[in-house]
């Protein structure tokens, strides 16, 4: 049980694929112009990650060391193609706006990274869980960045959510303020770099604060021990 | 020994490739009809927006014919739809291309009535800059609707240009290339359609290659 807890901590924070491993930046930067797109790609990546982790873990006994990479790539490519076909069939409009970024999930290093680093060495339930939390960690960063860019650039949140979640989601749309001219810097790729930079800086700042706090406690504890010994 | 391992690995890889291919093929077979239906539904939605149902009583999608004409913006065959009401000609629609968008070709759908008046224009596909050139989508702005009801008087009709070039169409703030490309393409195609409307309504053109797809209920 403890291991699952540790995996969760790793995936969501300590070793977050987007903030710490800095993997999968290509789709991350490209599709986060709105929170809806971010969610769409986040879910697709999550699904691929869980699927590929389970498959890689299940076949790991039969795959010799020498051919593991091509097999992993094949597994991932298969999952991505399947997702692409399903999205094309069932969420057509979202598929059109995510466009070329779906096939790019194949090149998302976070996925092959998890296959190689974790799924190929662990039983499938753990591998599935690892894929799940890593995928959620990645999707959350995507959505945070998408939300930031959408608010700054467009003054809205969840614009076009109905394309992903069905008609009921049209009411999720929030217009925070009216913009006559969208702030292009936020919507174009440079905005993604700047936004991601701020998010990473924020994470590091929180980590530094926590570390400082932990050190303080440690110091007091050491002193207490010294007094106890003397 | 080494050859044996290589053989074994090669066979294993081949086996994985076969399984993967089989899975993809299976999903493709399962989703094929639905994907076609989605594409068809999208074209139909745009068609029905610019040719209202009061204007036609034939199945527009079935009326699709292929036409090869440089004035429509492409050297490839492109789709032409013919609308009739009580067997009277009511509208012509064509998928046209504005080849000189800011980021490549823009696919448009254009409809005119038999007098040559533009019924409407819709964007089918484009790669224009988000926030600037994408105002040619109806979701983003009403700009594309400004074509409705307009006529092209002649090939050198000066009004068919963006305002910066002395014409009657707005440009977007920060983006002139996109609207300019669209206006040019629509002007050229409208001119062609209105000058050849008699021939186009009557001509025996090859059918579009579209398989009969089963009706998929909207979900």
Automatic annotation (TrEMBL), chain B:
Enzyme Commission designation: 7.-.-.-
Membrane topology: Single-pass membrane protein
Cofactor(s) demanded: FMN
Cellular localisation: Cell inner membrane
Residue ranges annotated for the FMN-binding domain, each copy included: 101-193
Domain of life per record: Bacteria
Record-linked HAMAP family: RsxG_RnfG (MF_00479)
Keyword line: Cell inner membrane, Cell membrane, Electron transport, Flavoprotein, FMN, Membrane, Phosphoprotein, Translocase, Transmembrane, Transmembrane helix, Transport
Coiled-coil regions, chain positions: none
Family: Belongs to the RnfG family.
Subunit composition and interactions: The complex is composed of six subunits: RnfA, RnfB, RnfC, RnfD, RnfE and RnfG.
Purpose: Part of a membrane-bound complex that couples electron transfer with translocation of ions across the membrane.
Designated name of the protein: Ion-translocating oxidoreductase complex subunit G
Gene Ontology molecular function: electron transfer activity; FMN binding
Cross-referenced PANTHER family: ION-TRANSLOCATING OXIDOREDUCTASE COMPLEX SUBUNIT G
A GO biological process held by the record: electron transport chain
Sites bearing FMN phosphoryl threonine, chain numbering: 176
GO CC field: plasma membrane
Enzyme's top EC category: translocase
Main location: membrane
């Amino acid at each position: 049980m403890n291991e699952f807890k540790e995996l969760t901590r790793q995936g969501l924070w300590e070793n977050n694929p987007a903030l710490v491993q800095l993997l999968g930046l290509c789709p991350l930067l490209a599709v986060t112009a709105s929170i809806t797109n971010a969610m769409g790609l986040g879910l697709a990546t999550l699904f691929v990650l869980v699927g590929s982790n389970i498959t890689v873990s299940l076949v790991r006994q039969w795959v010799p060391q020498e051919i593991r990479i091509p097999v992993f790539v094949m597994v991932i490519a298969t999952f991505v193609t399947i997702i692409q076909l399903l999205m094309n069939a069932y969420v057509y409009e979202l598929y059109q706006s995510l466009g070329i970024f779906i096939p790019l999930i194949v090149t998302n290093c976070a996925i092959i990274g998890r296959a190689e680093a974790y799924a190929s060495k662990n039983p499938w339930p753990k591998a599935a869980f690892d894929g799940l939390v890593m995928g959620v960690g990645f999707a959350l960063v995507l959505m945070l960045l998408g939300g930031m860019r959408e608010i700054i650039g467009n003054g809205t949140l969840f614009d076009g959510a109905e394309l992903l979640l069905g008609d009921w989601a049209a009411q999720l749309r929030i217009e925070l303020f009216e913009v006559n001219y969208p702030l292009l810097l936020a919507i174009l790729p440079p905005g993604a770099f700047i936004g991601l930079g701020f998010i990473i800086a924020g994470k590091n700042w929180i980590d530094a604060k926590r570390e400082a706090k932990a050190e303080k406690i440690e110091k007091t504890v050491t002193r207490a021990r010294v007094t106890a010994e003397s | 020994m080494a050859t044996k391992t290589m053989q074994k690995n090669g066979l294993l890889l081949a086996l994985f490739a076969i399984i993967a291919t089989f899975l993809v093929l299976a999903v493709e077979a399962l989703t094929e009809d639905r994907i076609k239906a989605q594409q068809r539904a999208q074209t139909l939605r745009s068609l029905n927006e610019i040719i209202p149902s009061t204007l036609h009583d034939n199945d527009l999608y079935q009326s699709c014919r292929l036409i090869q004409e440089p004035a429509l913006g492409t050297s490839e065959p492109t789709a032409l739809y013919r609308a009739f009401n009580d067997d009277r000609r009511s509208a012509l629609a064509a998928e046209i291309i504005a080849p000189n968008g800011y980021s490549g070709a823009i696919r448009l759908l254009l409809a005119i009535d038999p007098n040559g008046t533009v019924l409407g224009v819709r964007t089918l596909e484009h790669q224009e800059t988000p926030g600037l050139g994408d105002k040619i989508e109806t979701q983003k702005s009403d700009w594309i609707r400004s074509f409705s009801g307009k006529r092209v008087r002649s090939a050198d009709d000066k009004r068919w240009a963006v305002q910066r070039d002395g014409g009657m169409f707005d440009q977007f703030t920060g983006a002139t290339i996109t609207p300019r490309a669209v206006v040019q393409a629509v002007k050229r195609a409208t001119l062609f359609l209105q000058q050849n409307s008699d021939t186009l309504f009557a001509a025996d053109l090859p059918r579009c290659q579209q398989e009969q797809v089963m009706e998929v209920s909207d979900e």
